[in-house]
Amino acid sequence: MRIRRVLAPNPGVYTGPGTNTWIVESQSSAVIIDPGPIDDRHTTAIIGELGDTTSVAVMVTHTHPDHAPLANPLARDLGVPALGHAPGPGFDPDQRLDENSVITVGDVGMSVVHTPGHSDDHLCFLAGTVLFTGDHIMGGGSVMIEDLVAYLASLQKVRQLELSSLHPGHGDIMEKPYEVIDWYVEHRRQREEEVVAAMAAGADTLGQIVEHVYSSVDPSLHPLASRSVRAHLAKLESEGRIRVTDVADPRVRACET
Ligand SMILES: [Zn+2]
Fold it and tell me: For residue 233, what are the domain limits?
């Protein structure tokens, strides 16, 4: 098995150096994971990197705009199916993948691990002991979370796998997978503690909690941070620890224990 990275030309606050498009090749066959945004320069780079290999499929970890929009057009150009968990903005899978689906590339059977949390439709792909993590786990920082309860369960799920490295959707390859996963779990636990502490200090709206917890972070990132805090509040509410009294403009109240 040979793995190559083609970095998409979309660096930014949310994408780091850009989206990692991975090419996994075995016995002259290849799959493309997360082709990224529509950009002719990137299409040319991917096709150049594929060289003489026979493409089998284009796969997406999830349907965010920095991962999936090039999948359908590239798959059409290559004459192969586009694969993903579900349709989403700018993406319509020719075949849908689910937990335990297997994609065969040469002599490699790549299995699908459903990892909701960053997004509902998120998948990781396991080739041997190499896990392609998309935005479930990123190189160099925490990820944005939609559903924290699901996200933590998905971290535990991938922790059970036999892993040698993580190949993320953004940033560098991680060679110590279990340390990284444990850091992610601990990071969310600390954030939860900080959210609870902010409420104990009197913060009772989403905005106040974000200002409290992320006081050292550039305010331009607060809208992003507020999505994480929302996910924390939903988890605390599902555990009966707080009540969210206004969903549109969240106000929160601690429950008596
Ligand atoms: Zn994403």
Answer: 191-254
